[in-house]
Structure formats: structure tokens, C-alpha cells
Design brief:
There is one protein chain. With about 120 residues, the chain is an all-alpha fold. Helices cover about 85% and strands about 0% of the residues. Helix 3 packs antiparallel against helix 4. The protein starts with 6 loop residues before the first helix and ends with a helix. InterPro entries: DUF202 (IPR003807), IM_YidH-like (IPR052053).
Length: about 120
């Protein structure tokens, strides 16, 4: 019994590279959520009694980190599915919008965390 070659197998290297990229995005999402938990854990375990004004800031940073992590998973999954079809039809287009959106969102979260740390260090 002969097995027929599939369209996916014609571009196997591209599909495997796309899978690796997708998995890298998933690891990034996990790291983003981890940063949110780290910030909130650090604050509420060590600094909450000293800086009650920061409770809202830290809670917001943690919430935004979780939301951004979930969005990263959704965007990367949709992007991966689109790229599968684009690879097979040889109509691949790089997705700059996704990268820019996620990069700007991360910068906002990290800047907020940096400002929080500066204020905590100044008040200590």
C-alpha cells in the first residue's frame, strides 16, 4: 500500500519551523503570566504593609500580565493556523501587527513595574 504525499509534507521544513515559532510564543505567554504573578507575590508578601497605595498598581500589573498572556496564546494560535494555510499555498506574509501589539503591551507592563519599583525604592 503506497502512501500519498500530502501538501503539508511538501513544505515540511517550513511547517516544523512554524511549530517551533508557535511553541516559542507559548513559552513567552507563560513567562508573561509568570512576571505578573512575581510582581503581585513580591508586593503582597513583602511590601503590602508598607505601601498600601501600590496595591491597586500591582493588582493592575498582575491582571494585565495575565490578560496579555492569554491574548498571546490566542493571537499565536490564530497566527499559526493562518500560516499553515499560507505555507501550503505559498502565500505567506509576515505578521508585523501581532509582534508590534505584543511588544508595545509588554513594554507598558514593564514600564509600569519599573515605575512601581522606583517609587518603592524612593519611599524606603
Amino acid at each position: 500500500m503506497e502512501k500519498k504525499q500530502t501538501v503539508d509534507s511538501t513544505y515540511i521544513q517550513q511547517h516544523l519551523a512554524s511549530e517551533r515559532t508557535y511553541l516559542a510564543w507559548i513559552r513567552t505567554a507563560i513567562a508573561i503570566v509568570g512576571v505578573g504573578f512575581l510582581v503581585t507575590n513580591l508586593h503582597f508578601n513583602k511590601l503590602s504593609e508598607m505601601f498600601t497605595w501600590a496595591d491597586t498598581v500591582v493588582t493592575t500589573i498582575g491582571f494585565l500580565s495575565v490578560v496579555l498572556g492569554v491574548l498571546t496564546i490566542i493571537v499565536s494560535t490564530v497566527s499559526y493556523m493562518r500560516k499553515r494555510g499560507q505555507i501550503n499555498t505559498q502565500t505567506f506574509k509576515a505578521s508585523y501587527g501581532n509582534v508590534i501589539f505584543l511588544s508595545v503591551s509588554l513594554l507598558i507592563i514593564f514600564i509600569a513595574f519599573f515605575v512601581y519599583l522606583l517609587k518603592v525604592m524612593i519611599h524606603m
